[in-house]
Design goal:
Blueprint (H helix, E strand, L loop, with lengths): L1 E7 L6 H4 L10 H6 L9 H8 L1 E6 L11 H8 L4 E4 L4 H10 L3 E3 L11 E5 L4 E4 L4 E4 L5 H8 L3 H9 L1
Parallel strand pairs: 1-2, 2-3, 3-4
Antiparallel strand pairs: 1-5, 5-6, 6-7
């Protein structure tokens, strides 16, 4: 996977900041995407699109707060293909995997900046910052989680196994 970064240094970006509760009146992913990160960065969609970002890098405890499934759905529907942070809330982590949105725990987020181009090899466990020419080891995802992500989520993974 390869993409450009949009970075937020804040710690504890919670699910209310990812998708504010006032927008949970609809479950349509495109509607949720329109309001993604709105209370943290009102220009998120514009900024993300201007730099062609598809990877979020953020501070620790990303996705804390309520366990709403709409948070990773909003991120994925907005065009985010991966999230990198030092740590994630447990339920948010699982919700991301369930919808096929890869997340990476990476402590050295100070090494990555907005607009950097990142390439990730999930199988080998390598994060390559193409902009700075630096490579980092990351924890490899277990093969079954890679299969869930490649299947675009747990439901598709299970459907493929049954058929």
């Amino acid at each position: 996977m390869k993409g450009n970064v949009i970075k937020y240094d804040e710690k504890n970006i919670n699910t209310d900041l990812i998708i504010p509760a006032r927008y949970l009146i609809k479950s349509d992913p495109d509607y949720l995407a329109e309001h993604c990160m709105e209370d943290l960065d009102k220009d998120f969609i514009l900024r993300k699109d201007q730099i062609g970002a598809s990877i979020i890098v953020a501070g620790p405890n990303f996705g804390c707060g309520s366990s709403r499934e709409q948070a990773p759905i909003a991120l994925k529907a907005s065009g985010i293909k991966c999230i990198i942070a030092p740590s994630f809330a447990r339920i948010f982590f699982r919700n991301c995997i369930n919808i096929g949105l890869p997340i990476i725990e990476f402590k050295d987020i100070d090494e990555i900046h907005t607009s950097d181009e990142i390439e990730i090899d999930f199988t080998e466990g390598i994060l390559n910052n193409c902009s700075t020419k630096q490579k980092y080891k990351i924890l490899r995802m277990p093969p079954f989680i890679q299969e869930i992500i490649q299947s675009n989520g747990l439901v598709n993974f299970a459907r493929n196994r049954i058929l």
